[in-house]
Structures are given as C-alpha cells and as structure tokens.
Amino acid sequence: MYGTKKSTNTSCLRGKNNCCILSARSIGLYGNEDGSVLRKNLTILRQLVCQKTTTFECVWTRKSNSPVVYEKGRIYFDNYRCCFCSTGPQPTLLYELPKLHKSEKIEDALLCESPVGEMLSKPSDHMPSLIALTANNWLVRMSTKTAEILEKIYLSSQWKFRYLTWDDTQETIVAKTTQNKVTAAARAAGIQHSVLLHLALFQVLPLAFVGMLGIDKNIFGNNVTDATVSHGLLIVTYSMGLVKLYSFQWIVQEFTQKQCILGQKCEWNNTTGIVGAAPFGIPCNIKITDCPPVLFEVSCLKSAFQIGGHPWHYIITPNERKLEGIYHIYSLKDKELAENGIHEMQCCSLDTDWIYFHPDDSGRIMHIGPTQINVLQLSGKSEDVQRWQVLRAFTIYSAREREVESSVRVTAYGRVVKRRFSQLDDDNYETFKMVDYEDELELLTVLAVPPTDTEEKIHLDLYDNQSGILIKSVPLREPWDITHSHQLFFDRDTIIHIELLPPRTFCCHVYKMDQHMTEGGDENNK
C-alpha cells in the first residue's frame, strides 16, 4: 500500500519514442493481428497528450435550451435533433433535422456499434447507429452520420415507454415504461392497477423482439418500487431496501405465451396486426403467473447494490440510516464479508463519498471522496481457504496547501473565542468533483476544484491507471460554480465540459489538444 502525492512523473511514458513507433509501424513490424496498428496509434497519442509542451485550448462553445448529450465523438443538441462531430480540429455539424412536433421528440437513446469481424444480414447493420425512443412510443434506429431512419418499431398505444438501457452492451436493449400511477379519482372509485411497469427486450443487429413482461404486484409483492433487466438478471427493488435477483432467461423459457416476430402477422387478445407496426405494436407475450425462484437477495440502504470484481463480490451499505456512507464488500458466493471489507472515508464536506467497481474490468474498486481517491484490490488471503481480503492498491490525494485554521481564536485583548462551527474540507482544500476512466489511453481523469476564495483555476489531472502516478495537469478556462450542474468528458485528444447555467441554459465547451514546441524541442519529437 502506498499513497501518491501530486508530483509529476513521466518515467512510465519513456520507452520507444514516437519516431521509432512510426518507423516500425510503416514497415509492418507490428504484425497483422486485430487492433495492433490501433494500439500503437493510441500509444503515440498517449505520449503526445502527456507531454509537458501539450496544452488544451477551448476551441468551441455553444449554448442550448435543452440538455446536451455527448457520446463517443458526437455532441447532441435539442433532444438529438442536431448533431456535431467532435473528432476534428473543432466540432462540425453532421446533421440537423427539421423541428419535430412535441410528440415526436426523442426521450432516450443508446449508441449502437456493429460487432467486429461478424457478417450481418443487412449492409445497414454495419453502420454505427443511434437507437432512439420517441415520445410517441416509436423505437427508431437511425444512422449516426446522416440521421437516416434504418428501422422503426411501434411499441404500444396502451403504455408509455420512456427509458432505454442496455441488458448486455451492444447485444440486448431494454425499453421501460413509466410507472403506472393510480389517480385519486381511480382510487376513490376502487380501481387498482396491479402492474407497476412494463419491460420490453430487443436484440440488436439485427433488431429482433425478445419479449415483453409486466411487473405485477400480485406476483412480486405490493411494496415493489422498481425493476429492470441487466446482464441477464431481472432486478426488482422494494420500498424497505430489499433487492431481489431473478434469472431472466428462466422467466422467458417458462412464461412466454407466444413467440412474436417483428414484421409478421400476429393475433393477440382477439386483435390481429403486424408486430411492431402501428397501432398494433408489440404484445405483452411474457405472462408471469407464479413468482420465479430467487437467485439472490440482499437488504441495503436505498436499494444501492453493485456487483463486480474477480471473483464476484458485491458492495452495499447496511440498511440502517446511521450507517450511511459506510460500505461493506461481501463475496457473492457465500455472502461472507471480505477481510478489511468495511470502508468509511473520514471527511467533513458538503459532498459525500461514493464507491463503484473500476470500469476497466480489472476487478478493482474505486472509493472516491472529496479529498482522496482509494483504489482497492481484491486479493486471495490463502490458497487453502477461499477467503478474500481488500487491499489498498494506491491512493490519490488532493492538494492540501493551506493550513486548517484552528477552532480556537484569541482576540487582540487576549480573550479566547472558540468557533461554534468547524470549517469543512471544501473551505481549505482542493476537492475532487468527478473521476472518469479513459480506456483507450489507460488514464484516470480527475477533476480538481480549488477552494472558492482562491484565484486558482480548476484543472483536470491525468493519472496512470495502473500506478496512480500523476502525469499531467490540464487547467480549464471557465470559472467553476459549484452550485451549477456540470458534466466533463475526456476522450482521446478532446475535453468536453457541459454546464447548466441558471435559469435553464446548457453550455457546451470543447477543448482540443495543442502542441507548443520549446526552443530545444522535445525528446519524443527530435
């Protein structure tokens, strides 16, 4: 275990310089295996990004009255109606659709990319596409380059679909309805709706209907609050903090009443129509009549439950209000608490700490607080006994340049005055507001905000993902008001900052990498 202070160390970047890499690539020394050239290109890009002479300059700003969405090199405005490509020297307009009626606006969307090395039935399936859910219940697959509509599926005239999520990334999507609320008039009339919401699953590329089911309170219990499907599991949450997991594949096999294929005629509830066409839509063809067997259940605070790690572990806060901010790490196999599996970050701040499994699939755990980031690693305790312990791989600390003022003060007349309230960490230290992972450059990106009463600028710090060593700090030009909502993305050579200004104006700033050569040059560019 060790902690890393804010000292720049670029030794991890020294290996072959860019000239050697380019020369070897040009004569084919890297072989023909999939992705070899891309990996070398990203090695070059990482070295360029992390050079001392590299800066990031704001090249583009645009305001909008509706939320701004960024997704893999594309910036969407006006509910996905207007799209800019951010991969060039500055964002360029890809397309702008005509203004749509309120009923046709896009409610939610997912970016779909075709699999590598797999032949698909239609040429259009090989194009990157945006799968969008419109306000009038159409599921639309459209080209990300031209917004050409490639496929359309009408979902329902009975239920309002509002949300899109991945079940298995780039393989199966879940369309989810709003929750069925009983109005006061219906309640007074004795009308009760036992179905809380509906979930519809679709396979992508090619787009195919898997099935739709309702979450019935008569089956799952009256205190059900929400449900979704993720990684092949039906996850149901309850009002008292209980979370239950069921096998979705088992539910499909046991309770599917009829196979329905998009574009084919179907008879359902004495009505005949085309599956996926208006006004017929898609039928609710999975009818759960008995409660499925529970694979796993756990009680936790606010139903906050995460699974990950190698081997599988889960993170919860015990279901007691006084334990909020204390995280327990358990083995999924036997629900045994890992050794050193209880983690609490001692901090006094308006911002709370948060914890999650590292998105790089290393099995590590990120525990992030206002002034420090702990990267934790699951490790086997012994070969004989299957026990696991949580060790600290490294820690990243924020700058603590100012002394914490004493809570006791002496006046000019010698009278001792004790402060009633102690200061927060936010008042004295630079604090971490956002942490992200740039998977292609293997960098942890940490947004650091200085104390409010200083003239220091906010900065995005780049850390080596494996060691936690600080490689580079990138100052950002815009003033950072902590009372506003912010989003920050770091993608290869681009930084995207989206902020919400009062009363409701979204502002998008785009920074691009810029090279400033010194008189003596840089060793990687000689």
Automatic annotation (TrEMBL):
Keyword Cell membrane appears in the UniProt entry: no
Protein name (record): DDB1- and CUL4-associated factor 17
Lineage of source species: Eukaryota, Metazoa, Chordata, Craniata, Vertebrata
UniProt cross-references to InterPro entries, sorted A to Z: DCAF17
Transmembrane parts of this sequence: 195-215, 227-248
Keyword Lipid biosynthesis: no
Record-linked Pfam families: DCAF17
GO BP term, example: protein ubiquitination
One term under GO cellular component: Cul4-RING E3 ubiquitin ligase complex
Record organism: Scyliorhinus torazame (Cloudy catshark)
Keywords: Membrane, Transmembrane, Transmembrane helix
Taxonomic superkingdom: Eukaryota
